[in-house]
Specification:
Layout: H1 2-12, E1 16-20, H2 45-48, H3 51-56, H4 58-74, H5 79-89, E2 95-98, H6 104-108, E3 113-115, E4 118-125, E5 131-133, H7 134-141, E6 156-160, H8 169-181, E7 184-188, E8 207-211, E9 223-226, H9 229-239
Parallel strand pairs: 1-2, 1-7, 2-3, 7-8, 8-9
Antiparallel strand pairs: 4-5, 4-6
Helix pairs in contact: 1-9, 5-9
Bound molecules: nicotinamide-adenine-dinucleotide and zinc ion.
Length: 241
Amino acid sequence: MSIDALAALVRERQPCVVLTGAGISTESGIPDFRSATGIWSEVDPFEVASLHAFHADPERVWRFYATRAQSLLEAKPNRGHDALAELERRELVHAVITQNIDSLHHRAGSREVVEVHGSIRTAVCLGCGASEGLEAVLAQLDERSAPVCSVCDSILKPGVVLFGELLPVQAIARATELARAAELVLVVGSSLEVWPVAGLPLEAPALAIVNRGPTALDAHAVLSIDGDSGPTLASLLTALE
Ligand code: NAD
Ligand code: ZN
């Protein structure tokens, strides 16, 4: 029943923009942040994923990201990512804004993807601003403990937004523009606790949520489905046929 209601909303309220969080990727074997089994239940984010930690001990931050990057590269898009790519092909989803750094939306075939927390695909030079692909970076890490820029030899930083860092200005501007132009924002797999991204759904006249468990914006949603993203989005796809 609620799937049919969601399908009706998506059909009626175009353009629809989707905002995803770590929850859409747990079915690909990537842990989220805040669940009992989430990443931060095991390590302190400020020790391995903050700008402060990076300046204090870049090698330690790279050790964490090298392991993480390897597991993200091995992960595969799941039914949830696939369904969103298909909905974009059918022109029922205009764009995906994602807090994830795992590239799984791209790999599933979504084309209009805005990565508001950066991506593991690249590393950036803090000296000259050049960026390098992850593969070259990982190859360097076999020989040294922190990769350096091929242009100026300064140390590279993972291309993801660290705690204590500003969000990429262009991506946030684009995400805000998309949310404002949307008739519906569909949130999938996010606790909506991380600002300013959590404020994006409020830019649109209607908000729908697919999440396992509660989110910070449930009271604002016209429809909330408490369920797993893969099966729910696969059913949505069928309901929209
Ligand atoms: P979060 O951990 O705060 O929330 C994830 C939500 O998804 C939780 O409410 C959880 O119950 C729910 N969930 C888990 N599995 C689900 C499933 N299969 N179906 C539906 N819901 C499910 O994550 P968030 O809101 O994205 O927090 C933002 C931060 O997480 C961002 O900074 C992002 O960069 C980071 N992050 C990204 C990845 C990734 O790239 N895959 C992984 C972990 C964290
Ligand atoms: Zn450089």
